[in-house]
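Second attempt. The first submission of Transcriptional regulator had a stray character pasted in from the spreadsheet, which I only caught after the job came back as garbage. Lesson logged: always re-copy from the clean sequence file. Corrected sequence (411 aa) follows.
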Amino acid sequence: MTNGGQAQIGNVDLVKQLNSAAVYRIIDQQGPISRIQIAEQSQLAPASVTKITRQLIERGLIREVDQQASTGGRRAISIITETRGFHTVAVRLGREDATLSLFDLGGKLIAEQRYNLPERTQETLEHALFNTIEDFINQQQRKLRELIAISVILPGLVDPANGVIRYMPHIQVSQWPLVANLEKRFKVTSFVGHDIRSVALAEHYFGASRDCADSILVRVHRGTGAGIITNGQIFLGSNGNVGEIGHIQVDPLGERCHCGNFGCLETIAANGAIEQRVRALVHQGHPTSLTAENCDILSICKAANRGDVLAAEVIEHVGRHLGKAIAIAINLFNPQKVVIAGEITEANRVLLPAIEGCINTQVLKAFRKNLPVVRSEIDHGSAIGAFALAKRAMLNGILLQRLLEGAHTQE
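This time the job returned cleanly.
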């Protein structure tokens, strides 16, 4: 009897969360919008919309604005979201450093700072990271009105549902309960996610794929990874990790990858691999404007854009292998858009045609029709991917409901 009652209460809470989220999402994406229009689009009763909007207004999350009267009569009242007073500390945790950003709910960057974090154990990294977050919050006190979330993205294997880090590429971690520890220390709702998957979500909310529900983002940096968006959501799979495109074998006779396999895409399409290949060709005496001392990824891209034959051939070689793996992903997921990210996109005039050439020969005709391949539009050095996790939690109602319940508790 008791269990049935608890299940019923849980269902009521879930319905409340979903309804509030539906109303907030419509206002956020389409405001200014009237209550009548919200009711029509959400298919909720006008009385329910009125109740939810009243709660959101009382919490300061939305506000009313006057709209032009169409043909005389009184002005219609419309609603927009209020974003300026609610802040998220977003953290992009790298191998040696952390970028901390302060965003308002509209995705506006308020402040940003980079910290060195050369820690090598889970305990020392957590200690240093938490002190860094505290220092950043203290520095931003004059700009900070209400901190509603802390969000962290990082490389490795992440269990976002339970807030646990299972693996990181550069330090030993053992079921690191990062979210629970953040919430205990800072007393604020916290989130954690994989860096590239979260960046794909940020691209969907704020960047090149905001006009479509299904997209693939492929990023070339230290390695090669992908984030897949299906129906506006990150595709995560059963254990929260999908998109290891860098470990598709593209050359069975290729170099050994750190994963133990041979000829993974990552052994060809990663900044270090590209730089190493150019350096080797320079030492062999191939004509080029590049030198062995000056062949970092951006110099290579600039040289390729200028028509340097060696640089262009290396970028094209990378593009063809990237294209093979991307073609496989397109045949599997049938996206509406492919977004390429990373420093290598500086050579987009050489890179993108090489990728598109593979897509045109290796992808099903129906899947490649009207399929744009474009550069990323967001700053991958920033922590906007981490902010995207907090934005998602507002739109799906998880964070929104906590804010509403917090207001109820304070009354």
